[in-house]
Amino acid sequence: MGENVKKLVEDIISKRQVLDNLLADIPLERLEEPLVPGGWSLKDITAHITWYEREVIPALLTRVLEGSELWELPLEERNQVIYQQNKDRLLADVLAEAKDVFPRFVQAVAALDDADLEDPARFQYMPAIWKPVDLITSNSTEHYIEHTTQVHTWLAK
To answer: Model-level pTM greater than 0.90?
Structure first.
């Protein structure tokens, strides 16, 4: 594992640990409370994060950028479909899937070379203006920070 991949993996684990620690301090029965009236719950956010991690794994392992047709939707529409697909799932199932997917996501990132992080040509179908590292961070570290902030705001109320 190259130095840049190693740093990225450490950052992913670190930022996810902050979110996981925050969620671990919240009683399970509160994980299904909406953060705002009529809004998503912590269960919904967990399923949402897991969907993005799970979707990126095959692209990292195969170096082929393809996956769910939901990627073709605008972000807000995609997130709403993900929410609808997961809102009625049992909390235990959502948490189990998150626990299963995250280590596989980290392993997929760790399997990359440093050059993979910067060169879109190393991934079939990736637009030339993209950087693979941005695909990874937007679906992990940036995502964790965004939702950690939401949880802090909710807890402060």
So the answer is: yes
